[in-house]
Amino acid sequence: MNKKSETRKNIATGLSKAAVLALTAFTIALFFVAASSPNKNLSLIKDDFCPLERFLNTLSTSTCSHSSNDKGQKVIAFTYYEGRTFDKYSRNYFDGVLLNVNASKFVYGDEFRVRIYFRISKESPNRQELCSLAERHAHLDLCDVEATPRFGDVSAAYPLIWRFLPVMDKEVDLALSRDLDSVLNDREAAAVKEFVSNGNSEVIVHVMRDHPQHGIGMLGGTWAGKLDNHRELWRKSALNMLTDKKANSPGSIAGVDQDLLHRHVYKWSRKGKMMSHDSYTCSKFSWSRPFPTRRRDEVGNFVGAPVVTLQNRIPFDKEYECPKACRFKPNWTYC
Length: 335
Fold this sequence. Notes:
This protein is α/β, with parallel strands linked by helices.
């Protein structure tokens, strides 16, 4: 059985042989400390990937790690992998890890956690740096896709859908999917705040389109989901996505994550379960509203802007003026 077939099998069964062995090892370790632990399934021991002392739950069904246990998590999820990609600009995505871990505290505050779903070789110099980063930042969770508690090894799945995995976690109430070539900013946080505070419990998907080229239903790195009251719907959608044949596409192909989102999330969410913030195509998509903050004339002035290496921005030129219907205020020409 090849690795892709094994990944599909792990997802279908929910637990791989490797995960069973890991669970056994952790359980033995916990036997000797359970008496002093407030929760018999929790213990302060070192994680596998990094020598970090965190509370690990040996019975965890998390898609991240045995240490991502807290209930009611608000998660900002990213994918990081090394090797062949579709990127023709040679962007340094690891810089995006550093920038976003720091930015998350200022933009979203202490209540949000950052998850990095990663695949890194043992020889990579970034391996130790990632561990050092997690040691310095308690709100950072490292998710080794070759050893997830829930599915075992899912590394053969299309890399950019690894960051969608939090929607299957019962510990997570709010999941944000973001790109590492972008940096979290106040503009997106204000839009997310409107989504979260919306009183309609049926509106559970958030989408942001903030550039003339964002003319599709859902972008892979600018959406979010409320999970708490619709976990079974999210679980089925994610499972259908992960077991879709297209999920076996290599990371060298662009756009697969967005195709899968369209098939398995957008089609049902656009029917009254979605809120969209849209700067240029608000008339094209239902349930759209303007961004509540005014765009600034600076690098990275749109949500999802590739600023790592590329330093992208929307220029304040006439061709980039926002349609009047997409403006929060009439005089916000560039919304």
